[in-house]
Amino acid sequence: MKPAFVGPAAPRAWLSAALAARWRGLMLCAVIAMAASLIARLHGGPQLLYALLFGVSFHFLHEDERIRPGVELCTSLVLRLGVALLGARITLEQIAALGWASALAVVACVLSTVLLGIGLARRLGLDTAQGLLSGCATAICGASAALALSAVLPRSREQDRFTLLVVVTVTAFSTLAMLIYPLLAHALHLTPGQAGLFIGGSIHDVAQVVAAGYLLGTVAGDTATVVKLFRVSLLALVVLAAAAAYRSRTADSGTGARLRLTALVPWFLWLFLALVLLQSAHAIPPAMLPMLAEVSRDCLVLAIAALGVKTSFQALLRTGWRPFVLLLTETVWLGAAWLLVLLAGWTH
C-alpha cells in the first residue's frame, strides 16, 4: 500500500489535512480570545482571566470530535510558543543591573516559595507536581509559569483542572496585590528602590507588577519591572529541572542515552534561551520587540481560552479547598519574605 502523501506535494497535503482537523477548535479559541481582549480593552481587568471564564462557558463543545483537536493544539503547541517568546523581553544586562545582593534575594525568595509549595502540598494530601506548579506560579510569573510547567508535567484531567484553578487563583491574588501592595509599601515608608524590589519580587503577573510599580513613581516602576523580568528568566531553569525530573521517572529503561539527552530540554525552552541571548546582544531589531510581545500574549490568551474549554466548573469544585489554601499560603509567604529581606537591609 502506498503512503497517504508522497512526493513534493506531501508537506502541503499533510498541512491541509492537519488544518482540516483542527480549524474549528482553533477558531473557537480565537473568538474567545478576541472577546476577552475586547472586554479587557473597553472595561479594564485581567485579559487572561476573561479568556479563562469565557472558555469555561464553552466546555460543552469540548466533547465534539470536530472541536477537540484544535483545542488540544492550543494547549500544546500554541502554549509552548507563547512561553518561548517571553524570552525576547529579558536581557542579561537587566539581570546584572540588579546587583548580586538583590539577585540572590530574588533567587532565595523564589526557591523558598517553590519548596514551601511542594512541602505544603504533601501535607494537604496533594501530589508533588501540584505543589511544584502552584509554587512556581506564585514565585515566578503567575499564569505564564503555570502554563509552562503544565507543558512538561505529566498530563491528566485532574492535572488540567488543577492548572486551571491555579491560573484563576493566582490571577485574582495578583490583582488584589496590585491594589494592596503599593499602599503597604507607602505605609512602611519604603524607599522607591525598596518598593520596586517588593512589588517586582512578590506580585505574580507582569502586567500587575508594572501597574503597581509605576503607581509609586518611575524609579519604583523601573526597578519592579527589572526584578519581575529576572523572576521570569528563572522560569527556564525551573522548567528544565521539572522536565529532567519527570522524564527520568517515566523514561523507558531501554531508551538510549542520546535520545534521553535530546528529549530532556523541550524545544520551547531552547527558543526561550536563544531569544534571551539575542536580546542581550541587541540582535533583535527594536521594531520587532512589540510584535514579539504581542504574539506571545496572543498565544497565551489562546492557550488559556482552550484550557477553559477543556474544564468545567463542576470539575473545578471537586478539587476542594486544599489548592486555594496552598496558593494563599504561598502568596502570603512570598510577600512576607520580601518584607523581611527589605526591612532587615539584606539587599544593600
From TrEMBL:
InterPro entries: UPF0324_pro (IPR018383). Keywords: Cell membrane, Membrane, Transmembrane, Transmembrane helix. It is found in: Cell membrane. It comes from the Bacteria. Pfam families: Cons_hypoth698 (PF03601). It is a multi-pass membrane protein. Belongs to the UPF0324 family. This is Sulfate exporter family transporter. It comes from Pseudaquabacterium inlustre.
